[in-house]
Amino acid sequence: MSLKNIKILVGMTGGIACYKVPNLIRSLVGEGAEVQVVMTKSATQFITPLTMETVSNKPVAIDMFDDPGPISTRHIDFAEWPDLILIAPATANFIGKVASGVCDDLLTTIICATKRKVLLAPAMNPNMWSNPITQRNFNTLTDLGYLSIGPTEGEMACESNGVGRMSEPDEIFNEIKKIFSSVKKKR
């Protein structure tokens, strides 16, 4: 199943798993998807916007007011543009903010304003993932209809092992293809 003409907004939050996202975007673009990257300021500490612009072939959005064009409805334009929003990595901080309705940056504001499907790819230390507050926040979002993939079990950047690793790019890619193949079957 091709992703030709499918629009995907990839939201990146501040976690080491950001290093996996360029390969995922290359796969999406290679299948014909149009990809727009929105990064939090924390994400830019792990990987550069230039890298993400290079693989997506589009300027990366970071700040609510960093575009020289009309900005009053920028978050709404981003919220309505895609067929799917993928958050990879989705940190505990981001999950908590969205579950609480906090809109303090471009990405959280886009999520608040969208009616599109949102796919979360959580990534964090196993202790953070198993924290009851994180689990409550994550369950709140899945109960509201947010989709998710992972996290998986494995070795972490902090050298611990456990559940908290972001799913691999090929797994996320296949999940996205599955989402759109089920949509086409329903039509």
Molecular structure report:
- The protein has 187 residues and is of the alpha/beta class.
- It has a single domain, classed as 3-Layer(aba) Sandwich (Rossmann fold), CATH 3.40.50.
- Helix content is 41%, strand content 19%.
- The protein has eight helices and seven strands.
- A five-stranded parallel beta sheet has the order 2-1-3-4-5, sandwiched between helices.
- Helix 1 (21-30) runs parallel beside helix 8, helix 3 (74-80) crosses helix 5 and helix 4 (92-100) crosses helix 7 (132-143).
- The mean pLDDT is 93.
Summarize the structure.
With 187 residues, this protein is an alpha/beta fold.
Average pLDDT taken over every residue = 93
Low-confidence stretches are: none
Overall helicity: 40-55%
Number of β-strand runs: 7
Coarse morphology: globular
- Secondary-structure element series: EHEHHEHHEHHEEEH
Second-tier CATH architecture: 3-Layer(aba) Sandwich
- How far do the termini sit from each other? 15 Å
- The domain count comes to 1
Strand-pairing-aware structural class:
alpha/beta
CATH superfamily: Flavin prenyltransferase-like
Instruction: Return Rg in Å.
Output: 16 Å
The total of helices stands at 8
What fold name goes in the CATH topology slot? Rossmann fold
Which features characterize this protein?
alpha/beta, 8 helices, five-stranded parallel sheet, Rossmann fold, 7 strands, 187 residues
